Amino acid sequence: MTIAPSPSSSRIEPFAPWRGHADDAERERWIAVARDVAAALAVDVVDRDRSNALPVAPVALLRESGLADLLVPVESGGHGAHWETAFAVARTIARVDASVAQILGYSWLNQACAVFYGTDASRARDVLARSAAGHWIWSDSFNPVSPDLALVADGDRYLLNGRKAFATGAAVADVIVAGAVAVGGRHDGELVVFALDADRDGIRHLGDWDNIGYRASASGGVEYTDVVVTEADVIGVDRDEPFSSVVTPGVQLLFGNIYLGIAEGALEQGAALTRARPNAWFLSGVDRYADDPVTHRAFGELVSRTAAVEALADRLNRRYDDVVALGRATTAEDRAAIEIDVARLKVVSTEVGLEVASRVFELTGASSTKSAIGLDLHWRNLRTHSLHDPVDYKRIEVGAHFLNGTVQPVSLYT
């Protein structure tokens, strides 16, 4: 499989395939699909978490359901949905399986790198069409805290060497997006973004992911040994242009939605367990835990706080469609504004999600700690992923902007 065709003399032009907003029909259609996928995943989610096995069957389900091609324009063979819908779909799946929701969300964002980093509209369209035709799942090995990859010219091609940790989904994906500063050749000194077949010669998936949460996310490292990278693999060059970096607020917005989905899933499971819980605490004066005012108070607090996060997430999901529609007309101010708003979501979704996933045990009792029930999966997933980048720096980012109007330097975390 070749990710992109050889460069041609096609006209270079701005390209932003996402326009307008999702209507009710679009949202209802794909939320229904997401619920069906979540129901299928729920059957064995606890067993898959325990086994720490590669999520081969869940990823096949994402392809079969049409979700892999959700954001590809209709004219390129996809479903032409909007980011608002995509984030809501990821949230829905995260209520049951955050690992699979993460793989799906990353697939959309990495697939979109052909647009964010690309400058050749014809080539970007071709990449998206190929992706839709093959129902490709995309991943990346862009982790900025890992050592940089070495991309060194070898004649008219490059050789890629190095190792990246935390390459979520790469071991079960079709495509890996990566980047490196080229040494020599046509792109000497440029930060080149390229897309590689996940099973290309010289790529080794390390299988070293064994953490307390996100166990079904295939988040192990990737090692590259003399991997051939040609011009056909290059999807763009990062020149610090505002539109290309809009992908990062998209990543953080995905996180906020997944954290919210985890909280919603914990509440849903906690409510079911509470309704089924027999008897009541002897001092409560009621016959069932579900009738205890203490239980009502606690659920009321957690549900209300979760609903507030949902309102913010829904607003930002819709607004992200406005930002990506600007394409190359995106300004630094446009990019900074969405970055700050998404940082606010990241703060509250982390705080509320962790509180809900932890306190729900107070309402469901000691019996809910049985391993077979899997209520702990919500907390373990969120606790693990919320360490992706320190939320304290998001608080600082929001506070510095509120007081002084300052914006943090653009990075793969901001």
TrEMBL record:
Q: State if DNA repair is listed as a keyword.
A: no
- Quickly give the catalysed reaction: dibenzothiophene + 2 FMNH2 + 2 O2 = dibenzothiophene 5,5-dioxide + 2 FMN + 2 H2O + 2 H(+); dibenzothiophene + FMNH2 + O2 = dibenzothiophene 5-oxide + FMN + H2O + H(+); dibenzothiophene 5-oxide + FMNH2 + O2 = dibenzothiophene 5,5-dioxide + FMN + H2O + H(+)
Domain Acyl-CoA oxidase/dehydrogenase middle stretches: 151-227
Localization, per the record, is: Cytoplasm
- Domain named Acyl-CoA dehydrogenase/oxidase N-terminal: residues: 28-125
EC number(s) of the enzyme? Answer: 1.14.14.21
InterPro entries found in the cross-reference section: Acyl-CoA_DH_C, Acyl-CoA_Oxase/DH_mid-dom, Acyl-CoA_Oxase/DH_mid-dom_sf, AcylCo_DH-like_C, AcylCoA_DH/ox_N, AcylCoA_DH/ox_N_sf, AcylCoA_DH/oxidase_NM_dom_sf
Domain (Acyl-CoA dehydrogenase C-terminal) ranges = 254-389
Q: In which pathway does it act?
A: Sulfur metabolism; dibenzothiophene degradation
Record keywords: Flavoprotein, FMN, Monooxygenase, Nucleotide-binding, Oxidoreductase
**PANTHER family listed in its UniProt record:** ACYL-COA DEHYDROGENASE, ISOVALERYL-COA DEHYDROGENASE, MITOCHONDRIAL-RELATED
- Family per record: Belongs to the DszC flavin monooxygenase family.
Q: What is this protein called?
A: Dibenzothiophene monooxygenase
Specify the species.
Answer: Agromyces larvae
